[in-house]
């Protein structure tokens, strides 16, 4: 998975949305203690930055050193490069001891994981019974009727052959993802619950977001430029139709959240 994002790590850091404060406030409201959070698959640290404002300490791990180089340096965030499959010894050395973590977060990444193996690690490090796991994804950008009408066939048809099959879990809003945890206090299910991320973007920002896709990189490696001159011109016409260079772009966010219980 990490290999898919190495070549466009800078675009990923610049083009991807941050996550809404309401998302983190909701997650934090379900964690009785706020001493230690582990952000898995942190990439360039979009979620770690927000967690650092709530939790005393944050461990942020990723299998890509290239992406970690673009993560924000914060005094209470400890970044670690980890192997794709960690042993129990590596987990304790690089992350945390058993039953010591209040919250595990996975932002736009859990669909890439070996879930049975990963969940064993999660159940080992989370405090029992109230340790929380929160995994979320965001689906495609929503701009306005004109841009979205052009984007939809671009995403559904032009880019479709270059997405990894796990992308279907994101398109399904994480509804079908394996998630063997108990509902948090006050809930009767583990989600998905919807939030919305908003970002002010111009057309160049929008193209940077598209170029950060794994599908965009895969297509280029196969000799296909998804953002050809003709496609760029079509997007330009749609973008300037309302006379506004900058637009509020929405990214629907879908959260699965649960507690470890006494597993």
Describe how the helices and strands are arranged:
Layout: H1 3-6, H2 9-15, H3 21-29, E1 36-40, H4 46-51, E2 57-62, H5 65-68, E3 77-81, H6 88-94, E4 103-107, H7 115-125, E5 132-138, H8 145-158, H9 167-171, E6 193-201, H10 203-211, H11 214-221, H12 229-239, E7 247-259
Parallel strand pairs: 1-2, 1-4, 2-3, 4-5
Antiparallel strand pairs: 5-7, 6-7
Helix pairs in contact: 2-10, 8-12
Could you please describe the fold and organization of this structure?
With 263 residues, this protein is α/β, with parallel strands linked by helices. It has twelve helices and seven strands. It has a single domain, classed as Vaccinia Virus protein VP39 (Rossmann fold). Helix 8 runs antiparallel to helix 12. The radius of gyration is 19 Å and the shape is globular. The N terminus is likely disordered. Pfam families: Methyltransf_11. This is Methyltransferase type 11 domain-containing protein.
The geometry reads as: globular
Order of helices and strands: HHHEHEHEHEHEHHEHHHE
Question: How many strands appear in the DSSP assignment?
Answer: 7
Radius of gyration: 19 Å
Q: Average pLDDT, to the nearest integer?
A: 92
The structural domain count equals: 1
Helical segment tally?
12
Determine and state the CATH class: Alpha Beta
CATH superfamily label = Vaccinia Virus protein VP39
Largest sheet: 7 strands, mixed
Give me the CATH architecture, please.
Answer: 3-Layer(aba) Sandwich
Strand line-up across the major sheet? 3-2-1-4-5-7-6
The low-pLDDT segments are 1-9, 11-15
Cα end-to-end separation? 29 Å
Strand content: 15-25%
Helix content: 25-40%
GO molecular function, one term: S-adenosylmethionine-dependent methyltransferase activity
Pfam family, one: Methyltransf_11
Protein name: Methyltransferase type 11 domain-containing protein
InterPro entries: Methyltransf_11, SAM-dependent_MTases_sf
């Amino acid at each position: 998975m990490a290999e898919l994002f190495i070549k466009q790590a800078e675009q990923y850091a610049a083009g991807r949305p941050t996550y809404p404060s309401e998302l983190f406030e909701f997650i934090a409201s379900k964690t009785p203690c706020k001493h230690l959070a582990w952000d898995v698959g942190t990439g360039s640290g979009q979620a770690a930055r927000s967690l650092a404002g709530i939790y005393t300490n944050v461990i942020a791990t990723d299998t890509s050193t290239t992406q970690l180089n673009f993560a924000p340096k914060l005094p209470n965030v400890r970044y670690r490069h980890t192997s794709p499959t960690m042993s129990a010894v590596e987990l304790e050395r690089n992350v945390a001891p058993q039953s010591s973590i209040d919250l595990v977060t996975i932002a736009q990444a859990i669909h890439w994981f070996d879930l049975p193996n990963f969940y064993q690690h999660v159940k080992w490090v989370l405090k029992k019974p109230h340790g929380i796991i929160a995994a979320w994804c965001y689906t495609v950008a929503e701009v306005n009727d004109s841009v979205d009408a052009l984007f939809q066939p671009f995403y559904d048809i032009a880019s479709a052959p270059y997405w990894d099959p796990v992308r279907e879990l994101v398109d399904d809003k994480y509804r079908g993802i394996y998630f063997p945890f108990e509902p948090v206090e006050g809930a009767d299910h583990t989600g998905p619950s919807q939030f919305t991320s908003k970002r002010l973007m111009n057309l160049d920002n929008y193209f940077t977001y598209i170029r950060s896709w794994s599908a965009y990189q895969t297509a280029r490696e196969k000799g296909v430029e998804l953002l050809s001159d003709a496609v760029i011109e079509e997007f330009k016409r749609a973008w300037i139709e309302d006379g506004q260079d900058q637009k509020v772009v929405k990214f629907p966010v879908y959260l699965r959240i649960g507690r470890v219980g006494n597993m």
